[in-house]
Design a protein that fits this description.
- About 40% of the residues are buried.
- The chain is globular, with a radius of gyration of 31 Å.
- β4, α3 and β5 form a beta-alpha-beta unit.
- It has about 900 residues and is of the alpha/beta class.
- Strands 7, 8, 9, 10, 11, 18, 19, 20 and 21 form a 9-stranded parallel sheet that branches. A 6-stranded mixed sheet has the order 1-6-5-4-2-3, sandwiched between helices.
C-alpha cells in the first residue's frame, strides 16, 4: 500500500481515454449522482476497463471490497466537482489500500482526477524449484544424513513435488499419503522454500495437538538443519488459552480483600496457584499447567475478546495473547488447528477482510493435514446450542450465593460496593440511574430471572418429550431426537414447545434490556468515576452480550431453516438432574467451505492417510465443497499418474526440467491434483488379516457372548500386546467387564479407556508390553505405538456411525430426497474412512509386524464389504472359524524369530 498524500492530476496519466469517456457517460446516465467503479489495469499501468457497481450509496463499498483484486482500483466521483477527499473517502481508501487496491476520485465529466491511494503493483512469484524439492528428500541429501535412520521413500518425494507444483501454480492438491510416507516432511519442505522465496506466510492446520507439537518440535528442527535456512514457525492458539494480565491483577487485588465479592471460597486456593504460575510464566499459555484448571477458576483470569481493553490496557505491551500474535505476525509458518482456522475464516467472512489480520495474520496458502476431519469440525464450528449450565454460568458470574460463606458473590455485588464507594465520595448521587436499577431491580431480581430462564428450558424439554412420546431420561437412557416437521406442525409444538422458546427469549431479553439501561447510565458519570469502574463495567457488558446471544439463539430455533438440522438432547447430569441441550448445525458445509476456503486461498494442500473411498475422492469432494470448485486436472496415483518410483531413485525424473507456469491471479479454473500414494510398508508381509466366521451379525443377540470368547482366545494367542477397538462406549465397557478377569488370569493387564487420561493410558500400554487396551472414539486414530507393544488389533465391528446422529440423519434424508442411495453414498464411505484409520494403528514402521482381526463378517458377505476391502492395503483375508483362524494367526506371529525383518 502506498503512503503518498492525495495527488490531483490529469486522468490520462491513470486512465485510457476510452475508460475516461465511459466513466463520464455512466455518471451522466445516473443523473450526476455518486457512482462507484472497479477499474482493472493493463500492462502499461493504465485503467483499461471499468465496471459500475454502486450508485449513490457508500453502503455498497464492503461489497466492492469482496469483488476487487490487488492491483485494481476503486473510483468514484464527487458530484460537487471538489476532489478533496472526505473523512469517509480516507477511511475507505485505508481499507482498500490494505488490499493492495488503489483509490481515485474524479469529477463528473472525468476531466480531473485525484489519487488517494496508488494501486499495488503485483510482485512476480518466485516458483520453487521442483528439482530442489526432490533432492532435499532424496538419498545423500543433508536431510538423509540428519535423520540417521533415513528411509528412501519415493512416494514422499513425489508428494513433495506435487505440493510445490500446487504452490507454484496457485492450485489445489488433494493427496492421500499412506502410513509411512512421511507426509509432514513432504509438505513442510516445499512450503518453507516457497514461503522464504516469496516472503509469503503459509498456514499448516491439523486436527490434533499431538501433530502440531510433532511438526514444531520434531519435524521443523530437522528441516531447519537439513536445509540450512533460518525461518520462523509458531503454533497459534485461541485467545482463551492465555491469561489476561489485567484480569489476573484484578483477581490478586480481590483475593486480598477481607470482604471480596467476586470469588467463591471453593476456588480461592486454585486461583492463588494460577496467579503464582501466571506471574512466573513466560507465555501465559494454559497448556503449561500439568493439571488443567477448573473452568470456574480459569475464567477469572482467561483472556476474552469482549472483555479486552486492547491498546488502552495498561498491560498491552506485555500481554500474553498479543505477544503471541506479534510473534505469529513475524512467522513464515503458522501451525493451527482446524477450529482456529475456521474461526479466522468466519471473522473474515463476516467482515469481508481477506488481506489483513483477523484471528490469524493474513495468509494466502494453507496446508490441511488430517483433512478428513474438516467436514466434522466445520459442522461443529457452524453449529450452536442452548444449555441450562451455560446460561446458569453467565447468571452466576453476575450474582450467586456462596453457600460456604453464606454471602452474595459476583459482579453485581462487586459493582454495588464500588458504586457505594463512589456515592460516599460524593461522585454520584442516590438518583443515579445505574445505581437505582442495580440496587432496586437487578440485584433483587436476578435469582428470579435465572430461575425463570432455567424453568423455560426445562419446560421446553418436558413439552418436547410429551410431543415426541419419549420416556423420562434415566441412567442408561438418554434422548437425542431431531426436531422434524411432524413435530413443528403439531398443535403442541406451537402451543407448548415454541411457546417455551418464545418465553425463554423474552425473559432473557427483558433482563438484557434492564442491564443495558443500567450500563447506559454509566455515561452520566465523570471520567474519574468511569476509570474506577472500567474493568467491572467491561465484564458486565461482555456477560450481557453473551446472554443476548442466547436470546437470539432461542429465536433462531423457531425458524424452520431447510439448511439447518435442529435436535434436542435430554439426559441426566452428575447429580441426576435433567440436562437439556437444544442444538442446531448445518446439514451441509460444502458451500461455506467452497466460498470461504477453497475459492479464497491462492493454493491449498489437503492431505491425510485416509481421504479416498474406493480409490477415488468423490465422497470427500462432495462433502467439503471441492466438487463445485471450477477445476482442471485429473485424479492421479502412483500407478497411473506417470510416476515411476524407480525413475526417481535412478535420477531419470529431473524436476528441474519441468515447466513452471507463470503466476496467474487466483484463477477462475483451479488446477486440482488428486493423488493416492501407497504406503512404503510391505503390508502383505507385515500383517495377518483375519475375519472370523461363526460370530454372527453384530446386530443380533448372542454376538457379544461369542465376541467376548473370541477376544479372550485371541489375546491368549498373541500374549496380549493388543488394541481392542469399539464403536460404542457401552459395548466397550460391557466387553471389558466380561473379558478382563479372564485376560488377567493369563497374567496380562487389561486397560480401559476412560479410567485414566488418554496420555496416561498410552504410557502404561507402551511400558507394559503385554497389556491390552479396550478403547473407542479417539483411539481409532492419532495413536502411534511402535514395536512389540502392539501386535494385535481387534476391531469389534465395522465402524458405522451411531444411528441416532441427528446431522447424519438429516444428510441421509436429503440424499434420499435427491433420489440417491444414501447408505452407499454417505454411511458406507464414512465407515470406510474410519476403518482405514483404525487399521492404521497397527503398522507404524517397516519393522512392525502383527495381526488385524475384524470380528464382523459383513466385510466378506455383504456387497458393500468389497468397498471396504478395496480401501484397505492389499492383503488376502483369512476367513475361517475362530479356532483355525487363531491358529493361523499364531503361526504368522511366531515367524518373527525365523524370518528376516522386512525392510
Amino acid at each position: 500500500m502506498s503512503s503518498a498524500l492525495p495527488v490531483e492530476g490529469s486522468p490520462h496519466h491513470y486512465l485510457t481515454p476510452e475508460v475516461a469517456g465511459q466513466i463520464a457517460r455512466e455518471i451522466a446516465e445516473a443523473g450526476g449522482t455518486e457512482v462507484f467503479f472497479i477499474g482493472r489495469r493493463g500492462q502499461d499501468g493504465l485503467v483499461q476497463e471499468v465496471e459500475a457497481h454502486a450508485y449513490g450509496s457508500r453502503e455498497a463499498v464492503p461489497v466492492l471490497m469482496n469483488l476487487v483484486q490487488p492491483g485494481e482500483v476503486i473510483l468514484h466521483n464527487h458530484p460537487s466537482g471538489q476532489l478533496l477527499p472526505s473523512e469517509a473517502d480516507l477511511n475507505i481508501s485505508a481499507m482498500v489500500g490494505n488490499l493492495g487496491v488503489g483509490s481515485f476520485i474524479v469529477n463528473n465529466d472525468c476531466s480531473r482526477l485525484r489519487v488517494i491511494i496508488r494501486p499495488q503493483t503485483p510482485k512476480e512469484k518466485s516458483p520453487v524449484s521442483l528439482g530442489q524439492v526432490e533432492q532435499a528428500l532424496g538419498p545423500g541429501s543433508p536431510l538423509a544424513a540428519e535423520l540417521g535412520g533415513y528411509e528412501n521413500r519415493p512416494e514422499q518425494r513425489h508428494m513433495a513435488v506435487s505440493v510445490a507444483e500446487a504452490l507454484n501454480n496457485d492450485g489445489i492438491a488433494v493427496i492421500e499419503a499412506g502410513t509411512g510416507t512421511g507426509k509432514s516432511l513432504a509438505y513442510l519442505i516445499p512450503s518453507l522454500l516457497y514461503a522464504l522465496e516469496n516472503k509469503e506466510r503459509i498456514v499448516v492446520s491439523t486436527h490434533t495437538i499431538n501433530l502440531q507439537e510433532q511438526i514444531l518440535h520434531k519435524d521443523l528442527p530437522v528441516v531447519r538443519r537439513a536445509l540450512g535456512r533460518e525461518f520462523r514457525a509458531e503454533i497459534v492458539k485461541g485467545r482463551s488459552n492465555y491469561v489476561c494480565k489485567r484480569k489476573a491483577q484484578m483477581a490478586r487485588e480481590e483475593l486480598v480483600q477481607p470482604q471480596q465479592t467476586l470469588i467463591e471460597d471453593e476456588f480461592r486456593v486454585e486461583l492463588r496457584e494460577l496467579l503464582v504460575w501466571a506471574k512466573e510464566s513466560a507465555t501465559g499459555d494454559r497448556t503449561e499447567l500439568s493439571v488443567p484448571p477448573r473452568e470456574q477458576a480459569w475464567e477469572r483470569v482467561a483472556s476474552e475478546s469482549d472483555n479486552c481493553l486492547r491498546l488502552k490496557c495498561p498491560f498491552y505491551e506485555e500481554c500474553f495473547f498479543y505477544n503471541s500474535r506479534r510473534v505469529a505476525a513475524r512467522a513464515d509458518i503458522l501451525i493451527v488447528n482446524h477450529s482456529l482456522l475456521l474461526s479466522d475464516i468466519a471473522v473474515r467472512r463476516e467482515s469481508g477482510n481477506w488481506s489483513t489480520a483477523a484471528v490469524l495474520p493474513p495468509y494466502k496458502h494453507v496446508v490441511l493435514d488430517e483433512a478428513h476431519h474438516l467436514e466434522d469440525v466445520a459442522t461443529r464450528h457452524l453449529g450452536s446450542q442452548i444449555t441450562r449450565p451455560a446460561i446458569r454460568r453467565l447468571f452466576g458470574r453476575l450474582a450467586r450465593t456462596d453457600t460456604s460463606a453464606s454471602k452474595r458473590r459476583g459482579l453485581f455485588a462487586n459493582l454495588g460496593e464500588k458504586l457505594e464507594e463512589l456515592r460516599k465520595d460524593g461522585l454520584i448521587g442516590a438518583e443515579s440511574r445505574t445505581w437505582k436499577i442495580l440496587l432496586y431491580d437487578l440485584m433483587p431480581g436476578i435469582d428470579h430471572s435465572r430461575e425463570t430462564v432455567e424453568t423455560f428450558v426445562d419446560e421446553f424439554a418436558y413439552a418436547f418429550m410429551e410431543l415426541a412420546r419419549l420416556e423420562p431420561p434415566r441412567r442408561g437412557l438418554e434422548h437425542r431426537v431431531r426436531i422434524l416437521s411432524r413435530h413443528t406442525l403439531a398443535d403442541a409444538w406451537e402451543g407448548e414447545c415454541a411457546g417455551c422458546l418464545h418465553a425463554l427469549a423474552r425473559e432473557i431479553g427483558l433482563f438484557v434490556d434492564r442491564n443495558r439501561e443500567a450500563i447506559e447510565g454509566l455515561n452520566e458519570f465523570d471520567e474519574a468515576s468511569l476509570e474506577r469502574l472500567r474493568d467491572t463495567a467491561m465484564e458486565w457488558r461482555a456477560i450481557v452480550d453473551r446472554l443476548d446471544h442466547y436470546r437470539r439463539l432461542a429465536m433462531s430455533f423457531l425458524r424452520d431453516d431447510p439448511e439447518m438440522c435442529r435436535w434436542v438432547e435430554i439426559g441426566l447430569d452428575r447429580r441426576d438432574r435433567m440436562s437439556t441441550r437444544i442444538c442446531q448445525a448445518p446439514i451441509s458445509v460444502a458451500a461455506v467451505l467452497r466460498d470461504n476456503l477453497h475459492e479464497k486461498m491462492h493454493s491449498e494442500i489437503l492431505t491425510s492417510a485416509t481421504l479416498a473411498v474406493d480409490e477415488d475422492f468423490d465422497f470427500l469432494f462432495e462433502r467439503i465443497g471441492l466438487r463445485s470448485v471450477r477445476q482442471t486436472g485429473a485424479t492421479a496415483s502412483a500407478a497411473d499418474s506417470g510416476f515411476d518410483p524407480a525413475a526417481l531413485e535412478e535420477g531419470e525424473a529431473d524436476g528441474a526440467d519441468l515447466p513452471v507456469p507463470a503466476e496467474p491471479a487466483v484463477p477462475a479454473a483451479r488446477p486440482v491434483e488428486r493423488m493416492i500414494l501407497g504406503s512404503s510398508f510391505d503390508y502383505a508381509g507385515q500383517v495377518f488379516l483375519g475375519v472370523p466366521s461363526g460370530l454372527g451379525d453384530p446386530r443380533n443377540a448372542g454376538f457379544e457372548d461369542r465376541l467376548a470368547d473370541f477376544i479372550c482366545k485371541a489375546v491368549a494367542v498373541s500374549g496380549g500386546r493388543a488394541f481392542i477397538l469399539f464403536t460404542s462406549w457401552a459395548q466397550m465397557k460391557r466387553l471389558h467387564a466380561r473379558c478382563a478377569p479372564a485376560i488377567r488370569r493369563f497374567g496380562i493387564e487389561s486397560l480401559l479407556q476412560g479410567e485414566e487420561s488418554r496420555d496416561r493410558l498410552l504410557r502404561r500400554f507402551r511400558e507394559d508390553e503385554t497389556s491390552v487396551l479396550f478403547a473407542t472414539s479417539s483411539f481409532w486414530e492419532g495413536v502411534d505405538v511402535r514395536g512389540r507393544a502392539l501386535e494385535l488389533l481387534i476391531i469389534a465391528k465395522l465402524p458405522f456411525s451411531v444411528p441416532n446422529d441427528p446431522v447424519q440423519e438429516a444428510q441421509y434424508e436429503r440424499l434420499q430426497q435427491q433420489g440417491r442411495d444414501a447408505f452407499n453414498s454417505l454411511v458406507v464411505p464414512r465407515a470406510i474412512i474410519r476403518l482405514k484409520q483404525g487399521f492404521g494403528r497397527l503398522i507404524r514402521s517397516r519393522t512392525d509386524r502383527g495381526a488385524v482381526l475384524i470380528a464382523d463378517d459383513r466385510l466378506l458377505r455383504m456387497n458393500y464389504g468389497r468397498r471396504f476391502l478395496r480401501s484397505l492395503p492389499r492383503i488376502e483375508p483369512c476367513h475361517q472359524p475362530a479356532g483355525p483362524l487363531l491358529e493361523a494367526m499364531g503361526e504368522f506371529l511366531g515367524r518373527r524369530g525365523s524370518e528376516t525383518t522386512p525392510e
